[in-house]
């Protein structure tokens, strides 16, 4: 006959936030045995260090279960031979993401049949977010996608929405949850078979929701220390295997009931406001308009009220086939409450140890041991306390707004009659009425907040200036389009106007952009507007470089283009030959300036000649050479210009003199030239672009019509006013921009004491913007949420000037467990192992001998020889087949293992960049020829995870975000300057302006130490200055006991 055994499947190790240092396998097994818990979750399976510890200290037991190895057992006569716990692999994931216009925060409990399955699922999750910094990782991944990944990785996994009523982090949470299971899990809802009800609700409360009828209601402790195991638990009668446990949890076969907290003990049971000590029933809260009657702030809705909102049955309904449950409290608290002593005191602990030694495990004493036996060992008062507990004869004062409730076994008068016992008089909360489900009132859910510009878009979709630009008949038209004025919309509308109303054939139209991403977006918009790609047939859309390359190849000119990585290797060789101190990027920038017709004061002519010689020896042209060749060809050729009859150039402010020559040559004899851009956003002077290119066009072609787009639809007046005040310090006259959006909050200017404090502030601010990433933080910030919109991670961007600043920010965000996507070709690409790896795979892809030689030099530390040839043949045999079918991240995993590069930080960053690509060809192309914003790290592709955007100011061009933190507005950083290399102040100011105008609703400028000169250019009327706070002192978070935690506070 099977025994009924206790299971606590949701716990945490010491690798989770706010947990005990004792959270190791030894102490978990020891405390589980003392309490009489047979099945205990491992917790935190996603954390790699914890998994390794589990592998070291556990050994397989029954199918899918583990036990502690003998050499790690803690000897204790009180538990010897009574209960040998079995470990079940488990973990909790925190999902914070945006859905249906609302930030969602949901925790999910996952059970797995083994550590091998934990390795595989963790590998899948690592490709989406940071799982290293916290045992309960934060992923910006929708719950539906997390469920799909889990079941794809391990079909035997059990997926359980955790503590489903907790206000801040749960499926049905009042602050950030859903109203139905289907809203959260969509088509995969049928794969949810059980829910964890949490501390603030009991089974009868959950029975009032018919939507939960088909689900098993389970209970676990969510313990953050071994001593808190079993606060809630499950009663199982199973065959002692993972399959039996899974069957019980998901079907109820073998689930005999649950052990519960008294729901009133939970810290979110009732509505209330803790600062004012106001606690109300749902009916009382609704009568008060859900507003605190003392201070006027919004009340925190409790679990009882939230259940009332969603329930469709009256209180007292009993579900057919419902499992029985028992409400208990931990034995030390029962002893303390019965004797008047602190549960953690020596006297209570001594009594607790005696009872365990003489009577057995804690749950046996609480549930089964005859009262007479307890009376003999502990005395009349403790025996009476346990009797009252078993009978439910307790005095209940409910928890509210993060303050735990109080459960008493004796009145104060009863306790006062016992010598030497402490007083149990606590501050009395306001009286609470009945839960009153008959008072239920359905509230209409407010519509999702609509952005002002969506409500007020001009009729016809274009404002008068945009309409003029679209319909202009001028031979040459220059459109000055400031940030947020609808530049792309105007460009698309112009092309649609030419095709639809002017009946221009698509093959006569060419649209030139500066990035592949911009070209793809333009093509996508046109395809959608015209109803299919067939309507674009013959139209040329692409970058200057792609159009130049195609034109030369069509003319029969053979071109072999040097990719970015190849150019960097040649520049590195040039730098070494002349012992130059400048960076590779700086050297390439100066060479580009020379090729665009400008002079360089930093590199002598022989350096330029040496670099060109290296290119010529390899038969290569770099991107600047390509443009020069195309310019010379078109300036001489009389044909090949049909496609350029109607030429449109996007981001015109970024062209260099060679591109200007190409524009002239392409449009010579053409019918229309349409250029659009903003001189104030010209930020590529390091490669030859000129903000004065619009002026050049007017001087060369005085008849050019100029139209200015003046209405900014992106930013609030405060953001736009601050940015405009800064850019007015550059030449160019008054900027005519007006904000379309209503007034918002001032620009925050936060000054830190150093770079680290500035980075920590950024992490804290992100935490605040999303309403907290853990329970304690969410609770602290709940009072402000009524005033401030809670953001999703994906609505926030952190911008900085250099990749070095990004490195510190990445470390800080990783340490805080904040999911992020970093854009840009960072410093990790300079690492020799990364360079060698890229050269090796480029060789496999292109077959170039120079790549093979470079790979041998960097990876094998020697020139190519017969020995290196043998080694390469072996590597080629292994990895060439994977190039065609393997995902880049998986290929790099195998490569790093083969080359023993798993601990190389730069290689880890390369691997994280590979996650976003489906094929090695795509990955190598992004590395070799992508723009600054094309290479992303730490994000997901198949599953779009919500994550903070981390990028340089250059990479942010063309993007927009509700919240922007502009990091590093400090002397020497912005403008970027050194004693040897003074800043181009006007261009750096334009770069600052670009960063400021990425913000839609909130802009936060941060600086460390001595702030930038640009800082002082922001007017006080649009801004608010702050200092970073020192680290706030807060009590070490811990789980408090049932009877004495209110005196502790939280």
Descriptive terms for the model:
disordered C terminus; 37% helix; eight-stranded mixed beta sheet; 37 helices; alpha/beta; 1050 residues
Helices and strands in order:
Blueprint: E1 5-8, H1 25-35, E2 37-41, H2 48-57, E3 58-60, E4 66-68, E5 86-99, E6 102-112, H3 115-126, E7 138-139, H4 143-153, E8 158-161, H5 181-185, E9 194-196, H6 203-207, E10 216-218, E11 233-236, H7 242-251, E12 255-260, E13 271-273, E14 278-280, H8 282-287, H9 303-310, E15 325-327, H10 331-339, H11 346-359, H12 362-367, H13 371-378, H14 380-391, E16 395-397, E17 406-408, H15 412-416, H16 452-455, H17 464-471, E18 476-481, H18 487-500, E19 509-513, H19 516-530, E20 540-543, H20 544-554, H21 564-578, H22 584-595, H23 605-617, H24 623-636, E21 646-649, H25 657-667, E22 672-677, H26 693-700, E23 705-709, E24 711-712, H27 717-727, E25 738-739, E26 747-752, H28 755-769, H29 775-781, E27 796-800, H30 803-815, E28 820-823, H31 832-846, H32 849-859, H33 866-885, H34 888-898, H35 905-914, H36 920-929, E29 936-937, E30 948-952, E31 961-966, H37 985-996, E32 999-1008, E33 1023-1027
């Amino acid at each position: 006959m099977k025994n009924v055994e206790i299971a606590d499947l949701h716990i945490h190790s010491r690798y989770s936030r706010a947990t005990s240092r004792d959270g190791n396998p030894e102490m978990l097994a020891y405390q589980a045995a003392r309490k009489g818990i047979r099945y205990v979750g491992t917790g935190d399976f996603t954390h790699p260090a914890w998994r390794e510890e589990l592998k070291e200290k556990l050994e397989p037991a029954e199918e899918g279960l583990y036990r502690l190895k003998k050499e790690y057992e803690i000897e204790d006569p009180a538990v010897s031979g009574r209960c040998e716990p079995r470990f079940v692999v488990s973990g909790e994931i925190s999902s914070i993401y945006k859905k249906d216009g609302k930030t969602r925060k949901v925790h999910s409990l996952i059970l797995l049949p083994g550590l091998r399955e934990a390795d595989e699922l963790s590998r899948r999750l690592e490709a989406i977010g940071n799982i290293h910094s916290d045992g309960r990782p934060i992923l910006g991944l929708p719950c539906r996608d997390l469920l799909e990944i889990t079941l794809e990785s391990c079909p035997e996994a059990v997926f359980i929405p955790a503590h489903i009523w907790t206000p801040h982090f749960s499926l049905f949470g009042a602050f950030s949850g859903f109203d139905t299971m289907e809203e959260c899990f969509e088509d995969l809802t049928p794969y949810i078979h059980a829910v964890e009800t949490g501390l603030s609700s009991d089974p009868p409360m959950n029975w009032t929701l018919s939507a939960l009828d088909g689900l098993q209601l389970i209970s676990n402790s969510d313990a953050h220390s071994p001593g808190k195991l079993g606060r809630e638990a499950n009663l199982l009668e199973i065959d002692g295997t993972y399959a039996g446990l899974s069957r019980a949890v998901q079907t109820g076969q073998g689930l005999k009931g649950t052990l519960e907290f008294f729901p009133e003990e939970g810290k979110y049971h009732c509505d209330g406001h803790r600062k004012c000590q106001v606690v109300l029933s749902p009916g009382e809260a609704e009568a008060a308009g859900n507003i605190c009657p003392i201070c006027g702030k919004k009340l925190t809705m409790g679990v009882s009220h939230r259940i009332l909102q969603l329930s469709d049955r009256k209180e007292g309904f009993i579900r057919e086939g419902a499992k029985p449950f028992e409400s208990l409290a931990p034995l030390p608290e029962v002893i303390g409450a019965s004797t008047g002593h602190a549960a953690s005191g020596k006297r209570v602990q001594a009594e607790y140890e005696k009872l365990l030694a003489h009577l057995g495990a804690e749950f046996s004493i609480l549930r089964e041991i005859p009262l007479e036996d307890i009376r003999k060992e502990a005395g009349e008062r403790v025996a009476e306390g346990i009797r009252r507990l078993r009978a439910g004869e307790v005095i209940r004062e409910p928890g509210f707004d993060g303050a735990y409730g109080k459960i008493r076994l004796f009145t104060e008068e009863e306790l006062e009659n016992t010598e030497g016992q402490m007083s149990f008089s606590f501050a009395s909360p306001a009286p609470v009425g009945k839960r009153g489900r008959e008072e239920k009132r359905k509230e209409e859910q407010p519509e999702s907040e609509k952005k002002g510009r969506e409500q007020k878009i001009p009729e016809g979709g274009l404002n008068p200036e945009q309409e003029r630009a679209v319909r202009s008949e001028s031979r040459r038209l220059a459109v000055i389009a400031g940030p947020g004025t609808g530049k792309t919309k105007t460009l698309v509308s112009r092309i649609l106007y030419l095709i639809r109303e002017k009946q221009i054939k698509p093959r006569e139209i060419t649209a030139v952009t500066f990035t592949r991403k911009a070209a793809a977006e333009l093509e996508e918009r046109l395809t959608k507007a015209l109803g299919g790609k067939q309507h674009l047939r013959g139209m040329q859309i692409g970058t200057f470089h792609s159009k130049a390359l195609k034109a030369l190849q069509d003319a029969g000119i053979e071109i072999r283009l040097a990719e970015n990585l190849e150019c960097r290797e040649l520049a590195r060789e040039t730098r070494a030959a002349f012992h130059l101190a400048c960076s590779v990027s700086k050297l390439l920038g100066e060479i580009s300036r020379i090729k665009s017709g400008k002079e360089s004061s930093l590199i002598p002519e022989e350096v330029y000649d040496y670099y060109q010689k290296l290119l010529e020896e390899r038969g290569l042209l770099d991107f600047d050479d390509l443009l020069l060749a195309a310019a010379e060809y078109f300036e001489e050729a009389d044909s090949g210009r049909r496609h350029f009859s109607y030429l449109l150039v996007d981001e015109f402010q970024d062209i260099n003199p060679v591109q200007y020559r190409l524009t002239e040559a392409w449009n010579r004899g053409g019918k229309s030239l349409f250029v659009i851009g903003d001189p104030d956003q010209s930020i590529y002077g390091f490669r030859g672009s000129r903000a004065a290119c619009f002026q050049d066009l007017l001087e060369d072609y005085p008849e050019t019509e100029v139209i200015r787009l003046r209405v900014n639809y992106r930013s609030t007046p405060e953001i736009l006013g601050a940015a405009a005040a800064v850019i007015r310090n550059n030449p160019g006259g008054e900027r005519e921009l007006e904000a379309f959006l209503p007034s918002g909050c001032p620009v925050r200017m936060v000054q830190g004491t150093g770079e680290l404090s500035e980075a920590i502030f950024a992490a804290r601010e992100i935490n605040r913007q999303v309403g907290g990433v853990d329970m304690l933080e969410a609770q602290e910030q709940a009072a402000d949420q009524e005033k401030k919109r809670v953001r999703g991670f994906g609505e926030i961007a952190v911008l900085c000037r250099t990749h070095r600043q990004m490195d510190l920010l990445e470390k800080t965000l990783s340490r805080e467990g904040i999911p992020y996507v970093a854009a840009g070709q960072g410093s990790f690409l300079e690492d020799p192992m990364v360079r060698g790896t890229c050269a090796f795979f480029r060789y496999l892809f292109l077959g170039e001998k120079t790549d093979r030689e470079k790979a041998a030099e960097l990876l094998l530390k020697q020139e190519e020889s017969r020995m290196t040839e043998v080694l390469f043949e072996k590597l080629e045999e292994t990895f060439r087949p994977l190039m065609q079918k393997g995902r880049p991240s998986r290929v790099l995993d195998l490569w790093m293992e083969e080359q023993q590069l798993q601990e190389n930080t730069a290689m880890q960053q390369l691997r994280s960049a590979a996650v976003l690509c489906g094929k090695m060809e795509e990955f190598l192309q992004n590395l070799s020829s992508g723009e600054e914003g094309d290479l992303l790290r730490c994000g997901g592709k198949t599953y779009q995870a919500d994550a903070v955007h981390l990028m340089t100011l250059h990479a942010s061009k063309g993007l927009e975000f509700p919240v922007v933190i502009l990091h590093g507005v400090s002397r020497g950083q912005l403008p970027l300057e050194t004693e040897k290399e003074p800043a181009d102040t006007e261009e750096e100011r334009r770069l600052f302006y670009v960063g400021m105008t990425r913000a839609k609703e909130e802009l936060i400028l941060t600086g460390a130490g001595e702030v930038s000169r640009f800082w002082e250019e922001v007017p006080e009327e649009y801004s608010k200055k702050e200092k970073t706070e020192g680290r706030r002192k807060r009590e070490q978070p811990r789980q408090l006991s049932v009877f004495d935690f209110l005196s502790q506070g939280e």
